[in-house]
Design goal:
The chain has 410 residues and is mostly helical. It has helices spanning 3-21, 27-38, 42-69, 72-92, 96-123, 131-157, 163-188, 206-214, 217-236, 239-245, 251-280, 283-302, 310-330, 334-337, 345-356, 359-374, 377-409. The chain folds into 2 domains: 3-190, MFS general substrate transporter like domains (Growth Hormone, Chain: A, Up-down Bundle), CATH 1.20.1250.20; 211-409, MFS general substrate transporter like domains (Growth Hormone, Chain: A, Up-down Bundle), CATH 1.20.1250.20. Helix 4 (72-92) runs antiparallel to helix 7. The chain is globular and about 55 Å long.
Length: 410
Amino acid sequence: MTNFTKYMRLLALGITFSASMALPYVHIKFYDVIREATQATNNELGLLMTIFTGVGMLLYIPGGVLADRGSPKKLLIISLAMMAALNTIFAVHTSYVMALLIWALLAVSANMIQWPTLIKAVRDTGSKEEQGRMFGTFYGATGIFSSLIGFAGAALYSSVDDRIQGFHYMLYGQAVIAVLALIAVAMFVDDKTEYNQSVSVPEENPFKSALTVMKLPAVWMMVILIFCGYGMYIGIAYMTPYTTNVLGVSITFGAILGTIRAFGLRILTGPFSGYISDKIGSTAKILMVCFLLLIGMLFVLLRLPAGTSSTMIILLTMMFSFFGLVVYTIMFSCMEEVRIPPQYTGISVSVISLLGYLPDGIFSPLFGHWLDVYGNEGYRIIFYFLAMISLIGSIVSLLIYRRGKAMRNA
């Protein structure tokens, strides 16, 4: 596989992920509009994400079985076809009852059919020595395409005066992007690569495959690593309100910083961190250092007084976000370092994701509770909590590094 083919494949996988996440999380950008269009209450809109998360968790394991036994190209095409159809249906029938059904089907498409297959496809794109670059480039691509989809959606929405009609145009636009992603997958994502030619398809009962994976210490190391890495990624979102509410920067300035952290840094950090981790020969070593640096950044941020110069705030929050994104973009490449069997990549990703992404449903409500009860003092509690999570992440990264080194020397 040439470098051109590899990177076109990664770009195709990147736009697949970005196109698929646009509708489930559309409320982040168009909260008031979707509430108006569906005539839903705030609680009812919250229930949509509960359905998406709950159904997705139930289907992670079956999705892993599909990923290990099915055709990656066909599974991704099915998922993207569903995404295009669901965006179109929601544009035509924008009601709350329809939204309930669509968000359940989004979980089937994104969490069951696509996610384990996507990670398996990224892993199969490069050799053992290239895993950092493969995952880093993939996440960098998701940053690019998520930004482009966001800008295109905003342009379509604002192209007409009627808010609901603009929302419908945006949904049609997302459907078109899903079709473009489908075409990219059909062109550049093959089932077999030179790196998975010798990987056998599991023939045992799927339940036995799940039990086999759950007995692997490497999988549980990855669960803890992803839990900590994703937890710190969630923590990045609290930099914006911390800089505005505690450090006293303007809301506009904070929003600009937040946008740069969310998209700009992600685009650059993925490929850079992947390249460095491959050069060093250990992703876990990079992660361990980053987790420790994150602890230091948190304690420095806690000591900043109100009225701190904008330059210092930019420097520190960008450094925190940079190290957090390094962890987030390359953490899955540790699957190769701990030698998770390639034939069980799909089911392993499902188990790891089922437990490792629990912060998605735990941390935000917990942090919100602390802020409601303690006000701005809640940020101090949040940062101490994140420091503890980062410490655990550094310890498990060290264990993964030692395990990988021992297996390489065996």
